[in-house]
Request: fold
Amino acid sequence: MRTPLFVANWKMHKSCEETTAFALNFERDALELSALADIAIAPQTLALSSLVQALRGFPVSIAAQNCGQTEFGAFTGESSPVSLCSMGVKWVLLGHSERRWVYGETDALIASRFKAAIAAGLTPILCIGEKLEERQAGKTFEVIEQQLRAIESAEACARSLIAYEPVWAIGTGETASPAQAQEVHAFIRRLLSSRFSPHHGAATRILYGGSAKAANASELMAQPDVDGLLVGGASLDPNGFAELIRNGVRSTP
Ligand code: PGA
Reply:
């Protein structure tokens, strides 16, 4: 019922030329793997239109890494969600830990971006996750619950996805164990069920992110509540990303 989803988050890597080259190398794998999973790539904003063009007709969706908190307006440096949507972008990452902890984005700002994304017709992937000191202090569930408040209604829940990315696992090589990921994913699902409805809990796709790679995709995806992976470093090489997806879909419960 929940189609596996693999999202490449390229952060500020890859020029427009490198983006197009990746697309050319990935097309054949995309055709094969899209029968088994949904696939999306989030390049840096300046490369979005190169990627939209390069992947036209291929079963790979394009994602933005952030979007503005209103349709249009006086927000220097932001990207209009309406314009992203009209250029062919489908998904948008919101609340990524680098946005929260490098750029100081607050839960309130992320919630307003989330609303604007949905209003514009984008599907937000709300990124949430605890820092190491929060985990050590036993506050993981509290942090998750707080960050999930960006989803205010059942309608918004039905139109969004969640990515659990423990901050201590992002770009560090230290992946959450499958059991740690499953524990938090199950908690998120229970929370969505109780806040909205059991159907919303059961239907929402919850991705794991944080040092996901070809070598651990299978054990992560074998967890009943892990519906996909949000992949940074390991998505930069087309063959490596394809291998990760292949390993992940094989073990989907
Ligand atoms: P990583 O990044 O896979 O390089 O840890 C994941 C992310 O930040 O989304």
